[in-house]
Each structure stands twice: as structure tokens, then as C-alpha cells.
Amino acid sequence: MTDVDTGGGQPRRRGQGELEAQVLATLCRAPGPATAAWVQERLDGRVAYTTVMTILTRLQAKGAVERRREGRSFRWTPTSDEAGLAALRMRRVLDGESDREAVLASFLTGLTPGDERLLRDLLAQAADEPEA
């Protein structure tokens, strides 16, 4: 993890996935395919170019971005937004567990009533959609 200056002189550690989310959000704001240098500039130089490249490569491995060679560099395009990236992480965690039912049951019992209602509504909508 990388330290972040909080303005009080005390750097704090970035949360897991925080930098990925920042890089992806920045890339999503691009008017089209963007270079790693473009992303780094929009992060106000707070992140090294090599770190941006590493994050973009990790996002590509997760299916959240695509890259296309252009000359000697790459142009990156998001295939997912921040919500999609979070969903990918959640699926990866779920896929890594042997008892999916127990994991999902535990997840559901931890939801707030509002989130539970939202999840029920989303499941109902998904059930009503015709299969492609």
C-alpha cells in the first residue's frame, strides 16, 4: 500500500483497492482511450507513473480495462466502472470460498434494512428481465 498525505503531516495508508478505484475513476473521465501518463497527470502527480502502469495492468487482469498498443505505448479504455470493479472483487471473494451458501447468508444478515430492500428489488428486477 502507498502512503497518502492527509494534510496534517501524518500520512495514512491507502485502503485495499482505493488506488485501483482512483485510477479507474480517472480513466472513466477520459474523453476516449487514455495513456497511463494522462491518468497520472489527472492524479496530480501524487502517484508514480510506474505505479499507475502497475494498477492499470492489474485492472486489465481483472477485466476492468482494456489496452490497445499505439506506437510504443498503450491506450487504456475502461470496460467497467467503480461499481463494476467492486462487484468483480465481491465475486472473486465468493468464488474463493467453498461454502457459498454460508458466505451469502452471512452477507445478507449483515445488511442494513435499506440495503436488504434494495437487494430484493434488484433481484426482482433481474428475475423479470428476459434472458438474452
UniProtKB/TrEMBL annotation:
SUPFAM superfamilies: Winged helix' DNA-binding domain. InterPro entries: BlaI_family, WH-like_DNA-bd_sf, WH_DNA-bd_sf. Keywords: DNA-binding, Transcription, Transcription regulation. GO terms for molecular function: DNA binding. It holds the Pfam family Penicillinase_R. The keyword Transcription applies. Coiled coil: none annotated. The keyword Transcription regulation applies. GO terms for biological process: negative regulation of DNA-templated transcription. Gene3D superfamilies: Winged helix-like DNA-binding domain superfamily/Winged helix DNA-binding domain. Belongs to the BlaI transcriptional regulatory family. This is BlaI/MecI/CopY family transcriptional regulator. It comes from Streptomyces nitrosporeus.
